[in-house]
Amino acid sequence: MGTPDGKRQAVAHLCEGHGVSQRRACDVLSVDRSSVRYQSKRVDSEEERDAIKRASGTRRPMGVPDGPNQRWSLDFVSDAFPDGRRFRILTVVDDFSKENVFLVPASSISGLRVTCELDQAFTERAMPKTIVSDNGTEFTSMSGLK
Length: 146
Known about the structure:
This protein has about 150 residues and is α+β, with helices and mostly antiparallel strands. It contains five helices and four strands; from the N terminus they run H-H-H-H-E-E-E-H-E. It is elongated.
């Protein structure tokens, strides 16, 4: 019953099966009446849904690097200070040696900052053959493109 649709069905079952009012069924199930009465105005378009693709390019299995500096993995981790302020850390790891290439801690990390940090890393060590990241939306910025 966790989804809104499941809640609507549970309320309808109580109303129809036990003859109680919608208000009473919502009270018993601790369901907000507005969510039960909500009717979507969205037009479901399969064409539009198919047009929205997160991944671009062809997916294929990645080979295992056989030496250092061949593939780096980028990702963000986040946490909060005891006072509630959030912070993020950009992590860059060499996949072969598991060496931490660099960490960038900040309250906010822009796409421009990511490209600047990578440029700096490329001057200090050889550029890797491949850089990979997960499917998250963190790396969708256009800041690094010219």
